[in-house]
Amino acid sequence: MPLSLRIHPRIQDIPAEHWDALVPDGNPFLTHAFLSGLEQHGCVRSELGWQAWHVAWYRDDVLVAALPAYLKGNSHGEFVFDWSWAHAFEQAGGRYYPKLVCAVPFTPATGPRLLTGRKPNAALERALADALIAEVRRLELSGAHINFPDRATGDRLRRDERWLYRCDVQYHWRNAGYADFDAFLAALNHKKRKNIRQERDRLHADGWRFERLPGDALDERGWAFVHALYVRTFAEKGNYPALSDGFFRHLGQQLPAQTMVCVARAPDGRPAAMALFLEGGGKLYGRYWGATQHVPGLHFECCYYQGIEYAIERGMESFEPGAQGEHKLARGFLPVLTHSYHYLRDPVLHARVKDALEHERATVGAWHDELLSRSPYVHAVA
């Protein structure tokens, strides 16, 4: 049977079990529950520059391939920074926005993007990528962008000359089969090991206590506390907190086993800080954090050490704590290259960005290598 293409302006139009059957590796951000929660609770909406435009291929009315896509009226919440491309194109008389983005909103986590089921299907992946380009041409958009795809998807896109590729650096922790947190520390050089122990010991000696709670262990008041601290952190950094309190509660209700919150209790017993994590496919993902007061080392404990300890206890293979942050290197997170892929409809813009990316990749690659040379580990970590 031939394939038929449909564009869905709401993921709710696709049954959850049909969508989730296409997600191959347990990635929590690709689940129907996560993506639909963003739409249902006002995090993804046109006022914020996000209009759902999900691409789906059907065979005899059966969903066989799909990807999460959005018409974007700006570049906020993507973590692939193309503001300079937009400025240059518009200065030359072009219209950069809206563009079409295949991504998980507000989530710079690597994962599958061209969804074809438990086993990769190259023909269907090609059909999905072709559909993105066809939509750009049909709607006369500036381009299509695939952000943070997994390595296998990226390798296939790189062989297609229509797609330009870009790289950046994140910091990820890998589990080398550590028995416990002390075994992880033993793999670090003496200075880094001593610093981490001192940071942790100081907090515990002062009476700080930490609880790691599954999503369904928090009641409405607990989620209100988590969301309030998330908002506070974003306000302190001058950013807009796009995620609603309803979405946070939705995570606890719909993804309880994949959501974990570390709650830090001050010496007087009151909750004073939190870090929100998601997990799936043998990986832990750090997402948001906040605190009612500034305490030295509290951020590192909530966001990094509690996450590493949790990942070791559960036998997870890796921990991705989010974008940016060279300070993570000293705490056991090593630099890795992340990628994005870009189709630009205007041939002049395409050529200029292609040239710029060749230089940028060389710079980023050299930076990655320099960071890796400063590894905190005594021996190389595979």
Task: Explain briefly what this protein structure is.
This protein has about 375 residues and is of the alpha+beta class. The chain has helices at about 15-20, 30-40, 85-90, 120-140, 150-160, 180-185, 190-205, 220-235, 245-255, 300-315, 345-370; strands at about 5-10, 50, 55-60, 60-65, 70, 100, 145, 165-175, 210-215, 260-265, 270-280, 285-290, 320, 335-345.
Description of the structure:
This protein has 382 residues and is α+β, with helices and mostly antiparallel strands. It has two domains: 3-170 and 335-372, 3-Layer(aba) Sandwich (Aminopeptidase), CATH 3.40.630; 176-316, Aminopeptidase, CATH 3.40.630. It has helices at 16-20, 32-40, 83-91, 122-139, 151-158, 181-186, 190-205, 220-236, 245-254, 298-313, 347-372, and strands at 3-8, 50-52, 54-59, 62-67, 69-72, 99-102, 143-147, 164-174, 209-214, 259-265, 271-280, 283-291, 318-320, 334-344. Strands 2-5-6-7-14-8-13-12-11-10-9 form an eleven-stranded mixed β-sheet. Strands 1-3-4 form a three-stranded antiparallel β-sheet, with helices on one face. β6, α4 and β7 form a beta-alpha-beta unit. The model has no long low-confidence stretch (mean pLDDT 96).
